[in-house]
Amino acid sequence: MISAATIERTAEALMAKAAIEIPEDYLTGLRACAETEKGELSAFVIQAMLENYDAAKEDRRAMCGDTGVPRWYVKYGNEARVEGGPVALEAALRRATATATHDVPLRPNRVHPLWRTDHDNNVGINAPEIDYAFHPDGEWIDLTTVHKGGLFGTDYRMLFPGDGIAGIKRFYLDALVAFGKRGLACQPAIVGVGLGGSKDACMVLGKQASCLRIVGSRNPDPKIAALELELKALGNSIGMGAMGFMGSSMVVDCNIEVGYCHTGGMPMSVHMFCLSSRRASARIHADGRVDYRTDPEWFTSYSRRATVEWDGAPRARAAE
Amino acid sequence: MSGLRKVHLSLPASTEDLRRLQLGDVVYLTGRVFTAREGVYKRAVEEGVALPASPAELGSANFHCSPAARIDDDGTRTIGAVTATASFRFAKWLDGWFALSKCNIIIGKGGMTSADYRSMFVPHAAIYLTTVGYGTGALLGRGIKNVVAAHWIEELGLAQGVWVMDVENFGPFLVESDLDGNSLFERENAKIEPRIAALYEGTKPPTLRRFGETDDRSDEVI
What we know:
The complex is a heterodimer.
Chain A: H1 4-20, H2 24-36, H3 40-59, E1 69-77, H4 85-103, E2 130-135, E3 141-148, E4 155-159, H5 164-180, E5 189-196, H6 199-211, H7 222-236, E6 251-259, E7 266-273, E8 279-284, E9 290-293
Parallel strand pairs in A: 1-2, 5-6
Antiparallel strand pairs in A: 1-3, 3-8, 4-7, 5-7, 8-9
Chain B: E1 6-10, H1 15-19, E2 26-35, H2 38-46, H3 55-58, E3 61-63, E4 68-71, E5 77-81, H4 91-101, E6 105-108, H5 114-121, E7 127-131, H6 137-143, E8 144-151, H7 153-160, E9 162-177, H8 184-200
Parallel strand pairs in B: 1-2, 2-3, 3-6, 6-7
Antiparallel strand pairs in B: 2-9, 4-5, 7-9, 8-9
Helix pairs in contact in B: 2-4, 4-5
């Protein structure tokens, strides 16, 4: 049995980690950008960001003043039991969100869309979002928090099979060029592309591809993996670097996730996770142990299953 | 190391100080800075509510920023990180705002158009500094030496209120507009444009268009 107190304590720690510590995979990716960046202004921006990550860790202060909109991804191992059930878990996550907003501090970004009411704690109607997934075995739960900025870098479009890969590339370029200018997308970014699903699922898949897969991971379908690399190279060939200045650092990595869709369509979404790619994960075991990590391990062979029955190897944990 | 020119500027900055700045200079500020964005602009410019303090008390540099900050029950104010929010959304209030606030430096994210600079900034001898990144929130947080005041927190919330800060070597920022109203971003866009045209060569528009791609609402999108 996992205690609600452990969940709340872990969630508070995750909120701070996400806001303060740039994940190692993103950092490695950005350093690779820094090595190849020829644009003087773009290179200066990346250098300043690298210094900023150090300052954030040293001072234990948020790396960016806009600390995004905190949200949660929860994955239950099939045998996991939480004290007080899912309602207690949700209460713990909402409390931790409010507490960490005050303690770190984070920016209280969440307001009512019409009345602009701000509770100054990032909690409100339908906020923070809590998404769930399940895994075939295990007595653990995985908690991941993502604090993504919310205004620029995302788009959705209903494409059709006739638009083909060329249509995918064009819409991808449209999103990058539109939001890359003046650096509205806060690139270099982890670009997530959602392909297929119903419209809402398409948005979710793209968002999760950008926020819940790490730099350097590849889709298990070799042809999709090749497309990921092709889109990454395409994005970096636009000529636009950090802040939209001339350069080559637009895309740290491109992650594509797919879902089966209506036979007549090919919906597509694009999302960009920014220079402050805030995510942090932890696994809480039944005995109360907590293992912190930066890879959410959200997408697995189980979550991507294509068949009616799950006949995969359930112990293959969080395979990429 | 970067060959960009570094400039340390004391606030308030004179017009002569600002005239020496060139697009792309890296700027660090020392002096007084305050935050104000759409909540404040709406209240002060549209609704005509008097500013919560005099221009001298607020300072001459307006930061488009909501800080990652808190106010404890005992009134202690803590600012962790600060970065800017995208400024183009605020252009419609700026002319009135310059007249009210007497600011001559706007700090924000991403700048505005050179048309905005020429119509609103140039007449008030004001320039625009863009934050870097975005954003170097922790580095900027380090530059804050004292949180002098927090106004309109009750009315607008922590994020939209007016935070007045004394800063030291507060930066880096880049000079995005000069006193003639030129824009660094637009200069860079022009350099990138020819390559973008080449990238799109041979691609065709999507089967289903959308309004926005045509502004004629009697048009069909198929």
